[in-house]
Write a structure and sequence with these properties.
single chain, about 325 residues, mainly alpha, Farnesyl Diphosphate Synthase, disordered N terminus, transmembrane, cell membrane, UbiA_sf, transmembrane helix
Length: about 325
């Protein structure tokens, strides 16, 4: 019996199967990319921070109910991922012009534009259903509002029309901790407003630092980010001013009684480092200093909200 053709057929089938599997894995990876997981992870940290604070505010241990926390994380991930997928669809024209984004799934022609749009809408429908049914309607409504503001106001209008795009558009990214708060407390209270405002003022220096690194991309795409329209020096000056306001807000937050001394100490330490990084950038405008500030801003927000969580648990424990 001649087994060579059979062996060849088996080998070909195996190769074909590997390619098919690779194609499926690649497609799933592209759909995951549409949701922008790194952004979601940071948003979830802020949402969980809001839940810890609300738990303490309601007289609890400072640790929210684990099932509620899981549901908020699932609903928040679906909502944020859906908003990001719709953003991929709406920004496909300018993404194709920028080196940083040209290989994204939609401009890279690996995911059809309408498929990305349908995927994003579907995720948001699922997010609303999860939060409305298992958490509360206010949390679901705020999550949907964040998506609508992000895709319609920021992506569809502000981003392409004004250098103040990220200042106003940052409101969408400021909602997750409020969602976390209302998921536990059921109402919108003063500490929730502080959480919103902290992220609102964190967003411009964070994003402007990134804009300095990819200014050429924005120029090619015709996006009026602040460095493109106002120049590097004015952008760096604005970063420093917003950094001062941000740190002041984080310190004043302690006066509400929602957080204690552990948080205050962490906010002072982290904020001093933030202002110092912004000041160093102002003194020496360079890509290295801009990158340092951008990367630190990510760490800063995560550690600040981590300090909020630790503070609530600590105050209950002692």
């Amino acid at each position: 019996m001649d087994v060579e053709p059979v062996a060849t057929d088996v080998a070909s089938a195996s190769t074909s199967e590997r390619r098919e599997r690779s194609g499926l894995v690649g497609l799933l990876s592209d759909y995951l990319t549409l949701t922008k997981p790194p952004i979601i992870s940071l948003l979830l940290v802020t949402a969980i921070g809001g839940m810890f604070l609300a738990s303490r505010h309601m007289g609890g241990s400072g640790i929210p109910d684990l099932l509620t926390m899981l549901l908020v994380c699932v609903g928040g991930s679906l909502g944020a991922g859906g908003a990001n997928a719709i953003n991929h669809y709406m920004d496909q024209d300018i993404d194709s012009l920028m080196s940083r984004t040209a290989k994204r799934p939609v401009p890279g022609h690996r995911v059809r534009p309408l498929a990305a749009l349908a995927f994003g809408i579907g995720l948001n429908v699922a997010a609303f259903a999860v939060l409305a049914y298992w958490v509360n309607l206010l949390a679901a409504g705020l999550t949907l509002a964040a998506t609508l503001f992000y895709v319609l106001v920021y992506t569809g209008w502000l981003k392409r029309s004004t250098p103040h795009n990220i200042v106003i558009g940052g409101a969408a990214g400021s909602i997750p901790p409020v969602v976390g708060w209302v998921a536990v407390a059921g109402t919108f209270d003063l500490p929730a407003l502080y959480l919103f405002t902290i992220i609102f003022f964190w967003t411009p220096p964070h994003f402007w630092a990134l804009s300095l690194l990819i200014q050429g991309d924005y120029e090619r795409a015709g996006i009026p980010m602040l460095p493109v329209v106002a120049g590097t020096e004015k952008t760096v000056g604005s970063i420093f001013v917003y950094s001062l306001v941000l740190v002041a807000l984080t310190l004043v937050f302690a006066a509400t009684g929602a957080v204690g001394l552990l948080y205050l100490g962490a906010a002072a330490f982290l904020g001093t480092a933030f202002v110092w990084a912004a000041w160093r950038l102002r003194q020496d405008i360079s890509r290295r200093k801009a990158r340092n500030l951008y990367l630190y801003s990510l760490l800063y927000l995560a550690l600040l909200f981590g300090a909020m969580m630790a503070d609530g648990v600590y105050r209950w424990w002692v």
